[in-house]
Amino acid sequence: QVQLVESGGGLVQAGGSLRLSCAASGRAFNDYTMGWFRQAPGKEREFVAAITGSGNTTWVTDSVKGRFTISRDSAKNTVHLQMNSLKPEDTAVYYCAARRPVTGTNTRDIRTYRSWGQGTQVTVSS
């Protein structure tokens, strides 16, 4: 498994931008599909975005499409989430997660992710 550490969260005004980073340690980083999830107070943790080990395929949930971009730097074992045009409803703790791709499973399914970071708080003020 990999160990994950997020950074880059903070307080930003609506319309602003933040870039989250997730540093991974351990072997075979490129074998893992990496995902970002978020959890707002009183709500369940939800899928935000994911990227394959090769970086060739990405998924983004509809509510952030056109505003958030996921990318990875395999040389640095790092995954990023660029968040633009932030809205108050984007306020949440954001988590980085890793999964080994398994045929027939859903990349957006939180249950398929085995490694998790500690989370980073993102607060968007109106």
Give the helix/strand layout.
Layout lengths: L2 E5 L2 E4 L4 E8 L7 E7 L6 E6 L6 E3 L7 E6 L4 E6 L8 E8 L15 E2 L3 E6 L1
Parallel strand pairs: 2-11
Antiparallel strand pairs: 1-3, 3-8, 4-5, 4-9, 5-6, 7-8, 9-10, 9-11
How would you describe what is shown here?
The chain has 126 residues and is mainly β. The protein has strands spanning 3-7, 10-13, 18-25, 33-39, 46-51, 58-60, 68-73, 78-83, 92-99, 115-116, 120-125. The strands form 2 sheets. Strands 2, 4, 5, 6, 9, 10 and 11 form a 7-stranded mixed β-sheet that branches. A 4-stranded antiparallel β-sheet has the order 1-3-8-7, with no helix packed on it. The chain is globular and about 40 Å long. The model has no long low-confidence stretch (mean pLDDT 96).
- Measured between the Cα atoms of the first and last residue, the distance is 39 Å
> What is the N-to-C order of secondary-structure elements (H for helix, E for strand)?
EEEEEEEEEEE
Residues in helices, as a percent range? under 10%
Contiguous helical run count: 0
| Subunit arrangement of the protein | single chain
Largest sheet: 7 strands, mixed
In terms of DSSP E residues, the strand content is over 45%
Question: What is the overall shape?
Answer: globular
Structural class: mainly beta
Uncertain residue segments: none
Query: Total strand count, please?
Result: 11
Mean pLDDT, rounded to whole units?
96
Rg value: 14 Å
